[in-house]
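Q: Hi! New to this. If I give you a protein sequence and the SMILES for zinc ion, can you show me the bound structure?
A: Yes, paste them in.
Q: Okay, here:
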Amino acid sequence: MKDALLVFVFTATTAAAQAQIYDLLLKNGHVLDPANHRNARMDVAVVGTKIVKVAANLPARQARHVIDASQYYLTPGLIDIHTHFDAQGADLNLNPDHNALRYGVTTAVDAGSSGADNFESFRKHVIDKAKIRLLVFLNIVAAGMYGGHVEDDPKQMNVAKAVAMARQHKDVIVGIKTAHYQPPDWIAVDNAVKAAAQSGTVCMVDFHPKPGRGYRELILKHMRPGDIHTHLYGRLTPQLDANKKLEPYMLEARKRGVLFDVGHGAGSFWFRIAVPAVQQGFLPDTISTDIHKRSIMLPRATLLDVMSKFLNSGLTLDQVIERTTVNAAKAIRRPALGTLSEGAEADIAVLELERGQFAFIDSGHAKLTGTQRLRAALTVRAGKIVWDADGIAAEDWRGAGPYSNFK
Ligand SMILES: [Zn+2]
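A: Thanks. Here is the predicted structure of the protein with zinc ion bound:
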């Protein structure tokens, strides 16, 4: 009797599992999900806003909407940890949804556009309305990226005010940013690190060395393990000696846990620095864009272009995806992001790796030629298709039926 009951329960459970209806099934794509060590042809099934199953040969008949992903890579929605999106008053900033989703980016972190005085308005008018998940490094400067003397004014760098704001909005604020500071003292860096320590978050540092305030000292003494130096391959901070050999303090800083981020931007990515550093094994921990109205133009600091620059400088596809998914999530201490784990929010990038002859421009307007380029065919954010460059989710118009079919 007991055995019969067990058989009944088992059969009923199996039948229920088999009967699960997927809202969306991305079929037969090449899944690259470094967080879960997946690198194989598989299907990804979505119910509502969540990923429910990643496996080979899931039954298409159980899905409301099936997409043939056989020509593409399926990766977690990409994470760009250095962006500048529509904070009020910041002229260089861009609309978040228009400048993220089409590049496969579903999570972006605004890097210091706002400070304690204007973060709440940024949250109300932009962050809470965006389709992407928009997180924030709060500028230690209360006015945010206001420019010039304001960003150099120590009176703007109130630690208690920044900590209070970071604590109150810990669902969105992942860290504290310092940038552009010109005086030859350590006030901006030390206050930003202090505010990050007191709010239990990460500090992101954009650093302009001055006499008596050097880069070596920054990464070996002032930054904590887990803090992020952005603009790794920029001209201002010396990673290579005169013979283009990696400075030993770079390895020392990495060993003590300082993280190195790309933060391409208009002025901070030079092949003349990046390629020799990569050739000597010094890869970035995270790949990010520093995307804004200027950097998106000539040097094309979109995430897929920046990733493609690294693909053609010696990194593997797996390595660039790792640095824009799992590594980025760990760096901002949001380990639930950047994965295709079952139960995770369904943020998915469907990417094409194009083969041909391509050219890429850096911040010094120098060119790197290569044979691979990444392109986003389709983007899913929280279970919804929000970008479909190739129409792979769409039906041919001749079979689309009456207008009333359109939901
Ligand atoms: Zn920036």
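A: The radius of gyration is 23 Å. Let me know if you'd like me to explain how to read the tokens.
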